[in-house]
Amino acid sequence: MSETTKETGLQLAPNLPDPDGFYAELIALHEGLSREDSEALNARLVLVLANHIGDREVLREAFAAARLQGAPMT
Amino acid sequence: MTKVFETPLYPYVRCADQDAAEPARRPVVVIGAGPVGLALAIDLAQQGVAVTVLDENDKVSWGSRAICFAKRPLEILDRLGCGQKMVDKGVVWNLGKVFFDERKVYEFNLLPEGGHKRPAFINLQQYYLEQYLVERALEIGRDTGLLELRGGNKVSAVAQLADGVELTVETPEGPYRLHADWLVACDGAGSPTRAMLGLDFRGRVFEDNFLIADVVMKADFPTERWFWFDPPFNRGQSALLHRQPDDVWRIDLQLGWDIDREAEKQPERIAPKLKAMLGEDIEYELEWVSIYTFQCRRMEKFRHGRVIFAGDSAHQVSPFGARGANSGLQDTDNLAWKLKLVVEGTAPEALLDSYDAERVFAADENILNSSRSTDFITPKSHASRVFRDAVLELAEHHAFARPLVNSGRLSLPATYHGSPLNGPDCAAMPARTRPGAPASDAPIAGGWLIDRLGDRFQLVTIDVEAPSTLTIDGIPVERVALSAADNPTGALAARYLGEAKSAVYLIRPDQHVAARWEAFDAGEVTRALRIATARSDNAGRG
């Protein structure tokens, strides 16, 4: 089972150094925000990251991954 | 059936100190005969220091309490003569499964590295550990007269003096006074000693309740750690199933914050949850039920003059990650040899400040890890829950999300980065055995490296000559001569040599690395030993 998709090479294998530290920072970013403000922050974050990726094929693959398309891995 | 936790193992007996005109003077007094107090007392007595343990009870603790023991504490218990009993009785497990709602989303294998005497983890009820430690303590007491375990002795007052601590001890036959040159408080998270001295204990309170049940049942669940997020049988909460010996299973059910604690503990309230979790036909007996809340906090300093705190009295973590008892045993491992050298007068009191530096560092690591696990398991905000659920959903489909799933980061020993006791390092050698790290085990001719280490300073040499013993400032340093060729699997070379052709390691009595070089130099070893015993500082190193 390949951890990158064939078409574009979207990285789906673990790629984040210090995953627990990253997660704690991400959650801390939302601290004290209302639900609406958190949602707006997430939307801005997606747009910032999408621009950084800059590759429409990769982004389409990411959209599919986020929609959980495809069978679960075992 | 009479369980071990119902049997008095060290009943109150009147002692001569109770009849003394003036308070008797003891070099080291330990308050608390739990795992931490007993481990410390055994370690000290084994190293020749007389120690008196006071506890208001006379039995091991009731209920399973700490159940996961990691490899490093097992190595410490080996040094104390209890490791084999633990492993013989305990259940070894490697596989963990994580469920979300009704689906398994992830499984992990601890995949313990080969070439270690002890497994990554065993499960065993805390009362067995306490029983083995009590047996060992009584045995050392009989054999050497250096360890005295006094049940029914409750400390009711503590006064700091310039040269020690004066204690008032209540017994069934009335109070007596005792003078301790050094007092170690191993009296748990609610430490009465800490309260009597008016010392701080700060941190984070988690607004949550957990039901722990020890369930005796004949079940064919595998020997694995099963963790559920938001399962149908405990909606919106988490659950854990973990096997212990004697057909006892640990079940943890998260209950939330606003609950009626007494009502939740009733067997008729628990039964439907267990049946939904384990199957309608399950036959079981409840051995122990408890509801707990938790905090992550520590004392600002673990040493206050002649009073030293170890284990839960000094630091408290959430149970996720098995970092409570495991870190308490590592406190005693760190403290015993230092206290011995200070009591003997071969090292300055400053050596005890390194206990504070090293174990505060370890406590912060444990608190960080256990707080993060708790935040993942019980999200504190809407956004946090949305991300948590997204991680679990993605983990089922994509490998990248799995390292983010956090149902507990299991206890690993701290490497004392930047410790004042660390001496010279050698860049060609592996990071895992750098100064401050616990010595890695490895197979060697006729057994295990870890069994050759501990209780004194040692010089491990690999393919290089050195004197068989050195005595530096009255402290003996004994050589352990090894060759990479002794270990055909290459584990010894991989863990200790790296790019180097030969190695000299100075190992502390707690099996941690103090310094290392490629070649032997008596002057260098002397300098490193002085740093490791706080006779000179390591400015510019670490």
Salient structural properties:
heterodimer; A: 74 residues; mainly alpha; 3 helices; globular; B: 542 residues; alpha+beta; FAD/NAD(P)-binding domain; D-Amino Acid Oxidase, Chain A, domain 2; Glutaredoxin; 3 domains; eight-stranded mixed beta sheet; 28% helix; 28% strand
Share in β-strands of chain B: 25-35%
Q: Tell me the fraction of residues in β-strands of chain A, as a range.
A: under 5%
Total number of helices of chain A = 3
Q: What is the arithmetic mean of pLDDT of chain A? A: 89
Q: How would you describe the overall organization of this protein?
A:
The complex is a heterodimer of chains A (74) and B (542). Helices cover 55% and strands 0% of the residues of chain A. Chain A contains 3 helices and no strands. In chain A, 9% of the residues are buried. In chain B, helix 1 packs parallel to helix 8, helix 2 runs parallel beside helix 8 and helix 8 runs antiparallel to helix 9. Chain B is of the alpha+beta class and 542 residues long. Chain B is built from 13 helices and 26 strands. Chain B is 28% helix and 28% strand. The chains are: A mainly alpha (74), B alpha+beta (542). At the A-B interface, helix 1 and helix 2 of A face helix 9 and helix 10 of B.
